[in-house]
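User: Hey, quick favor. My workstation is busy. Could you predict this chain's structure for me?
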Amino acid sequence: MAEPASLKVSVWRGGADGALARFEVPARENQTVLDVVTHIQRELDPSLAYRFACRVGMCGSCAMTVNGRARWTCRTHVRKVVGPDGALELRPLANLPVIRDLAADLTPFFEKWRRARGRFEPREAPDGAVPEDFAVVPPASRARREADAGIECIGCGVCYASCDVVAWNPDYLGPAALNRAWTLVNDVRDGARAERLDAVAGDAGCHSCHSTQSCTERCPKGLDPSSAIAGLKRTLFWDTLFGRR
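Assistant: No problem, here it is.
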């Protein structure tokens, strides 16, 4: 089947109560979705709002909803997602407030990181002094491997926008925040393990996850937030059973 000569692109315009606008964009070889958005902004409508930075799959800021699925637009080639008639639909990330057009407000996403205590808190020496030497973390240890498995998250929001639980429970912490909490629970240098487990144990925490694994399926970095969430559930179970909490 011959590729279409032009793309029929529907783009979300306005805020949460906006609507789709239609644009016709030339189809080109090796064209990415971000190329399409850039063409519209530069050649057809300079008022179009969207977000991007690196263009090479390092920052994640160009994430949008492409034909119903959250993706990095800089790494998504049009030929892999376009419809047979050249149709392409672009919306901002789901489960987040819309600033304008294709730009979503990630404030709730990062606020969930804060609520999950997703920051490293160094362990203090017994006398409160700063340790003189660096902590030794054996690379082959199980805890180190568990932390390494999820440490490459860059906070792009694709998993959050893909999460069915977030869609119907806005209080749910979400895959990225819980994945971050899991990496810190397994960091032997961290001194806030108990407080962090308390933070992810509530009604909006890890036990709300239904394990549909949309986050794992769609993570552009190939991470497995579903396994991280399962790890938090197991840890909370054993800690409660043996009275460690």
